[in-house]
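Q: What does the assembled structure look like for these inputs?
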Amino acid sequence: MFEFQFDESKCHSCETRDCMTRCQYMDLDAEAAAIEMEKLISGQDSRVLHECRTCYACEEYCPAGNHPFYLIVKRQEELGIAPLPDPIIRQGIQVGVPFRGDPEITEINGPVLNMGVFSPLTRLIQGKLFEGLTRISTDSRKMHHFFCQLMYLHFARTSVINERLPGVIETISAYKPTEVVHFHDECYGTYTSYAPAFGIEVPFRSIHLFEHLYNRLNELRDEIRPVNYKVAYQRPCSSRLSPDAHGYVDKIFDLIGAEHVSRRYVDENALCCGSTIVSQKQEGSRRFCLELQEKNIGDMKQAGAELCIFNCPACMQTMGKQVAENGIMPIWMSDLCRMAIGETPA
Amino acid sequence: MDSVYAALVEIVGQDYVSTRTEELFTYSKDLGTSEPQWPDYVAAPATAGQVSRIVQMANEKNVAVVPLGGGLSLAGLALPLKGGIELDLKRMNRILELNEKGRYVVVEVGTSHGKLTAHLHKHAPHLMHSEPGAPPAATIGGNLAIHGQGDLGHPYGFNSDMVSGMEVVLPTGEICRFGSCALGNSWYTLHPLPDVSMFMGWSGSTGIITKVSLRLFPCKKIHEQDAFVVENEDLVPEILYELTHVGMAEDMMVVSQEIPPPFNRLHYVLINISGDSRKELEFKRQLMFDDRLYKYIQEGTGGIGAGGQEVPRPVVSKTSDWRKGGGFEYVGAIMPVASYPECYRSGVEISGRHGIPYTTLGRVLGSGHSMMFSWTFAFNRADEDTVRHARQALHETDERVLELGGTLWKPAVFGQKLLMDRMDDGTLQMMKKVKHMLDPNGIMNPGNWEVA
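A:
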């Protein structure tokens, strides 16, 4: 149906093999990485297919922008090497099935804010920072029509994404948006990284939430009062698909007077929240996930973070409570920004 | 003036008796598929003494008496099938004694589970009782009258296994106590006196429970729910066997339902655990997931679907909100855990035949000694055709339960008859003798548990 745009020659000429040698969960030197990559390219079984934690990071590590993670997922599906147990895959696939009627669509002909499959969090999108944006997918009964489907990368199911995504794009396009600000990194990554990689046409322009927040904060610069918090940021997996947008994290923190604490697990070295890892088939995954979270939160504490900033609902759900139990307040990026302009967080 | 009405006014006071149509109308309804049944009088007593006087008067005048708690059984068990006096017990809602060290609480029968939970949160947050999977308005007495179960069902069984003493008004008016309280002692145990307590499970047809001593259990600081998901229903009994072996859960349920889609044709083993610390919770999770369930994860047949979630309640009523019209009723049965796969398949089949999205739930009782399995059928209250389908599905399920070797729980009259048709004759005759001995004039909740 769609053709995966993967350039083998880029891998053949790669000297660093960063995609695998920098992986935080697999131990591969450049030589071993070259061998495993060849196996992946030729469609053979590889230890990578069994050991991948699906953190998306190799997408960012690849210096050639050649989508190694999408290749891994594609091969996992082709060879039937799923990282998760079958019932969890079925559960996940069924999550995206709309079941309560179609959304009512009216043409906007202006900028929109797409809540995707997180309509219950619409409360976060209020106040001056979001003025002038028409919200779409605000009805939790209909939100599955806006679900970007990218989650299925964790499930070794690019086929499901490719089957459903055109319909989702059609739904959003029907609003006739001039540009679409995406509430979630995953949606932004879908339309700016995944879709082009698979030759899926996206007829609207996408804007990352952080870019929007940064621009709006600049417009409201006079109203900003420094928040003076020491903050850590829990980087979500899908942010690896849009490293350009990740740069806005520090820009926003600088603008609102938040000190981004110096940590070991930050930016390209960020650790996964573990929401998928906990269920994986690999031996000891549950314990591994806990240790990962302990390492991550311990690092935040050691760095003196008072707040942990989240943008991904899955990260918040997985780690929010633990972060709070460790004396660090979990808070949404949008709420932090709203606090900076004197608004009350949701 | 009507002599019954006058007598009721004399006993409970004018404000607590009614024959007004609009009030009788309210009491004529049940939330399930039962047809309305109108009482002639509604009375709300405040004490066991008033209850005693009412039943004595009812015997004299040969008027039926139907005790009512929260009215949430859904099976029409507190509907006045033969008219008479609807006895609303919700005024009897005092919490009489909280014995922290002895871990029991003495309450009046109309105390709601919600009120008791709130009381314990405030006065003894380290203790809890077993709340059934029902709205907080469900009463302690109503729940015992139907052998209810709920939280802590896995370690401790039915709610009626958690009783340390009872006070009952017999159909002829005598007030009796059972357990240590019968000796004038505190209400700390129901055993070991000779067992003459024949009131639980009778739906108020042998007497009216007026006070209850309930066992309380340690309430840990953190309560969370994990989910283990399987696709093959045949695996559920052995997974429950593994989990009950380690005995770490406070409650275990298996849910499968057509709507919403993530639950469709999957089986969610919901495991409620608690601990005073993260360390305690992790210890329990290690025993369950790493030691007992790992093989399913590794072979890919089962997986951790969620961890550390808030414990939702109530469960069953939410699941039926997926159909326009808001009505639902369920068949509950006490089944061997081994019959889970057949129970589930029956639910899918019967629901499918009636055009109702299937909803099934099994709750483990004791160490897997049995499970309460429920088949829920949603209907649109404004659409008689869907009500008829739901009613028919309920009846078919009642019959299927018996075919599968199960025992109907809180059966409606239709189900009661099915049970009594199959019952061992000696047992049936004893039930008849008990009923006749306690209620010689047949005034108590007539129509229920009537042996021909």
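The two ends of chain B are 36 Å apart (CA to CA).
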